[in-house]
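Annotated sample (chain length 251).
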Amino acid sequence: MGRDLFRGLTIAAVGDFGPLRSHRVLRQWVERRGAAYKQNVSMVRTARFQRIPIVSYDWLEGSNIAGVLKPMQGRYLVQKAVKNQKRRKRKEKLIKEITVQRAIEVFDKECQDLKEKLLTDRYQIHRDVTGFAYNIILVRVNVLQNTSERCYLKLCSTHETPKGYTCFLTHHSPRKNPETTFLTNKRCDWFTAWAAFQKAFKEKTKLDWDSRLEVKKVYDEDVFVYIRPKEGELRGYMMEDYIPRWLRGIL
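Output written by the structure step:
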């Protein structure tokens, strides 16, 4: 924009403006537009004492884009920016606290449900390193009868170590009480439980677990459909997650 935009001004700056906004770069930038540049803490302190407006970097950037000096007030004031930053941090902290509280509530409910099924409070829903919970929903719809069935396939692990695992399926169908079928012993090793989980998933959906996110038309009335995670939600480990990055382009 205009080379004389800041002519007659002395701009004193303190603080860190980021790697792309070093004081050397900032000096070159404002001096090319006619201003004198000072990296001087005392000048900023004096301005504050004399109640001269202290503006943020956004004032420089906004003035440059507009081609005229922006008013030294409102959102361009450092004091306003600091308040907004504190407000954002408080909001982020509150959201984090709410998220943690909800996670605790979900975890407690899962443990209570498992306690009713397993008659012990030693188990939790298994989660992999991505945080994905192996508590999935499979649905089968009968269009002619206007009914639907649901299967809840759960892979569980003990709270304590060494870990014990179990896998079971709960079937909800119209006008019937839910039926729970254990696919393993109530305490087995990881490989047995994981094999049972994958086998049950394939029997119900006709898909391998690693193909679970594929969208296929279902013509078989006996086939259940996996309720896939929404975009952005955890999806669990996929086959490519097990393959080294350097090998993915070869296979």
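Annotation: Helices lie at 23-31, 41-49, 57-66, 78-118, 190-205, 245-248.
Annotation: The longest helix spans residues 78-118.
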